[in-house]
Specification:
The chain is 33% helix and 32% strand. It is of the alpha+beta class.
């Protein structure tokens, strides 16, 4: 059976009064729901002004969690997350049409992670990120949807130039800014001892890889209290280094997984692997 420990924390930062970030988690209520649905983690960073950004991010998280809970049993993860993100985009876009325009349109980033059996499926729009920490190595699983990052992928800018460009934080894709949205989705196999980290740019922009490794170098497998301490430590470091933006993080530790095979599109269990 898939089992997890997790912690999440959102902070307005040391220089802001409002928090436009939002986060949430769906925890299955039974072993059968763990298999049919799994665990869903959602994190969003609102843009478009104090009130608009907060509305957009909270609407995104609420819609993802509610629609996920109502989704058909065993719906395949990748198309499910795409469907949910597109529905959230429509809801935010339509809500934005009802609100007075204050600068940029109401929009939000989104990164969401669905864990089921021995797989993690990650969907994202914008520049909120998902990392994997495995065997002491930190790997980025998402790619930023910013103008500068897109220019790097096209070969128009170097990585160094993109970091200094005026478009480094300018989103090229977000939920709610347009009626249609392209959602990136990828899937990885997870193992006991893996740790997934979802975060906003206010979190990762102020931290170095060594900060992650030091805070998360815990004895044995990760426990919820240990993850909460690590989240507080990392948010405190981000605030000391900068604190000019909202700071949010979700830490997800994989304790055990249930390996599966597929037969005619249906999963069947192979064995359960426990962590130390």
């Amino acid at each position: 059976m898939l089992t997890l420990d997790y912690a999440q924390l959102s902070d307005p930062g040391s220089q802001r009064e409002h928090n436009e970030d939002a986060l949430g988690v769906f925890v299955p209520s039974s072993p059968s729901q763990t298999r049919s649905h799994g665990f869903l983690f959602v994190l969003a960073d609102g843009v478009g002004g104090h009130s608009h950004g907060e509305v957009a991010s909270n609407l995104a998280v609420r819609r993802l969690l509610e629609d996920f809970a109502d989704s058909p049993s065993a719906e395949l993860p990748a198309p499910l997350l795409q469907r949910l993100a597109i529905a959230a985009n429509t809801a935010i876009f339509e809500q934005g049409l009802k609100m007075p325009l204050q600068g940029a349109p109401m929009a939000t980033t989104l990164v969401t992670c669905l864990l089921r059996y021995d797989r993690a499926t990650i969907a994202h729009v914008g520049d909120s990120r998902c990392y994997l920490l495995r065997d002491g190595r930190l790997k980025l699983l998402t790619r930023d949807h910013t103008v500068a990052a897109d220019q790097v992928r096209l070969g128009l800018l170097s990585v160094l130039e993109s970091a200094q460009a005026a478009t480094a934080t300018m989103l090229s894709r977000s939920l709610g800014s347009e009626l249609m949205v392209n959602v990136d989705v990828n899937e990885i196999q997870v193992y006991p001892g893996d740790l997934l980290l979802l975060c906003t740019d206010g979190f990762y922009a102020s931290l170095r890889e060594q900060d992650f490794l030091e805070a998360l170098s815990l004895q044995g497998h990760y426990t919820a209290p240990a993850l909460e301490r690590a989240a507080r430590q990392l948010v405190a470091v981000a605030n000391r280094r900068d604190g000019s933006d909202n700071i949010s993080v979700q830490l997800i530790a994989v304790r055990s997984v249930e390996h599966i095979g597929m037969y005619r599109g249906r999963p069947y269990a192979l064995r359960t692997r426990e962590g130390a």
